[in-house]
Amino acid sequence: MTQEILRAEGLRKSFPGVQALDGVDLTLRPGEVHVLLGENGAGKSTLIKMLSGAHHPDEGRVLLDGQPVDIRDARTAQRLGIATIYQEFNLVPQLTVAENLALGRPPRRFGFVDTRAMRRQAAELLARVGVDVDPATPIAGLGIARMQMVEIAKALALNARILIMDEPTAVLTTGEVDRLFAIVRQLRDAGVAVVFITHHLEEIAEIGDRVTVLRDGRSVAEVAADTPQNELIRLMVGRPIDQQFPRRPAEVGEALLTVRGLSRRGAFDDVSFEVRAGEVVGVAGLVGAGRTEVARAVFGADRYDSGQVSVRGETLARADVHAAMRAGLGLVPEDRKGQGLVLGDDVAANLGLVTLRRATRAGFVDLRAQRRAAAKVAEQLAIRMTGLDQEVRTLSGGNQQKVVIGKWLVAEAGVLILDEPTRGIDVGAKVEIYQLINALTDSGRAVLMISSDLPEILGMSDRILVMARGRLVGELPAAQATQDAVMELAVTDVEASRVQ
Ligand SMILES: Nc1ncnc2c1ncn2[C@@H]1O[C@H](COP(=O)(O)OP(=O)(O)OP(=O)(O)O)[C@@H](O)[C@H]1O
Ligand SMILES: [Mg+2]
């Protein structure tokens, strides 16, 4: 019999109104990467929270080395050698990187926290994950990809026998994913059992050994990681999906969004482009290329030093989100938790956020019409919820993302800027979002889509802009674009080309 490190049997867990887990079995072997696969809301995060001591199962049991264990809380999990990287980050934004990495166990000298030793340890951990961050920086000042790398470093520090990673690659780009995979392989070869959750199907064969598929709170299959993708999709969704990128080009009209010479010192430089009615314009680039910064400046969320943004020929005031929204601009931000949602409010309120703000300005709110619109969008996006009055905090990660997109659909923005729109979204729901993008452009609206998912950029854009180090370095029509062509532009050495 193959050696097992952990076995979970018949786990069940309910929350008010939902049976989140309805009979889940899982076996983990030392030295394997075990992928958990399932649609948004299938129960993946709930399952791992039973193993990390964040939740307690209603029924079922967990065996470690053949012995039943009661994983009462996070401390117990840690003592048993189980470390977890959660989908929603667990860092303290006000503290520095070094403080976060030392949380709970800072090195001491004469009874005081030894800051020098703490920073040195942090620097070693950061070097291990290959991320270039000053340990003295506050977490709040880091971009989301770097936060993820710090989370990973923090889990490595525990030297666990079982390492659980809930969608670690969702916010990373190619280079960082490669680096992460190298670390995961090292751990696996050293005998660690790694639990890995991802919605990127191509990663499964690359890094996984076995896959447990969850559907509606049940484990429905355990298969080898080299199982063909369409078979994995069938197992998780219950039906095949014939076209992963169903882009349907629309008739292209006048320029809706025009950006000229946009610059902010240290962030982006002389960025000019336009997006026309009916177009989907993709923006590719590496992390730190300045894509999110440009999007936020265009939307008025951040300032810029010079340049001009206009919508339908009308120039927008700088750093004025309300002016941008009135002009019909919308932004789905990459950091949904920080910027996109009010977690303590229900789904209906979150879906109505933009319209509400507009309507209050106009003087009245038609709450019933707003609720109807919210219900329609929730259905279009197949948001898995107990009802419109469920708190957004208790939705699964992917379903929260759908709410962020949904609120701009309810608001009917003329130009929608999407920053990593399908991050954390399952394959089936991605196709739904792409269909909505088609519907938007069919009705004469325009979409600017930032994405680090190259197949998505290639599959859904009509034109692709590539940014590197704060500059627009190239544009490719979708028909001529390949992953290699995009990557080649994305690594353009702006400094070198400027010298020549
Ligand atoms: N604290 C909670 N209160 C109420 N419902 C919850 C809570 N936590 C999870 N749920 C519900 O349990 C179900 C499973 O959620 P879970 O987060 O495990 O899904 P998931 O498979 O991780 O999905 P995703 O891919 O979107 O991250 C969902 O319907 C979710 O809304
Ligand atoms: Mg989850």
Q: Can you characterise this structure?
A:
This protein has 500 residues and is α/β, with parallel strands linked by helices. The longest helix is centred in the middle third of the chain and has 16 residues, at 174-189. The protein is globular, with a radius of gyration of 23 Å. The structure holds adenosine-5'-triphosphate and magnesium ion (MG). Residues 44-45, 87, 166, 396-397 line the site of magnesium ion.
Summarize the structure.
With 500 residues, the protein is an alpha/beta fold. The protein is built from 19 helices and 22 strands. Magnesium ion binds at residues 44-45, 87, 166, 396-397.
CATH-derived topology of the largest domain: Rossmann fold
Bound molecules: adenosine-5'-triphosphate, magnesium ion
Radius of gyration: 23 Å
The CATH class assignment of the largest domain is Alpha Beta
CATH homologous superfamily title of the largest domain = P-loop containing nucleotide triphosphate hydrolases
- Give the N-terminus to C-terminus distance in angstroms: 65 Å
What is this structure's SSE topology?
Layout: E1 6-15, E2 18-28, E3 33-37, H1 44-51, E4 59-64, E5 67-69, H2 74-79, E6 82-85, H3 97-101, E7 108-109, E8 112-113, H4 115-128, H5 144-156, E9 162-166, H6 174-189, E10 193-197, H7 201-207, E11 210-215, E12 218-224, H8 229-237, E13 255-264, E14 268-276, E15 280-285, H9 291-298, E16 306-311, E17 314-315, H10 321-326, E18 329-332, H11 336-340, H12 347-351, H13 353-362, H14 367-380, H15 397-411, E19 415-419, H16 427-442, E20 446-450, H17 454-460, E21 463-468, E22 471-477, H18 483-490, H19 494-499
Parallel strand pairs: 3-10, 3-11, 6-9, 9-10, 15-20, 15-21, 18-19, 19-20
Antiparallel strand pairs: 1-2, 1-4, 4-5, 7-8, 11-12, 13-14, 13-16, 16-17, 21-22
Bound molecules: adenosine-5'-triphosphate and magnesium ion.
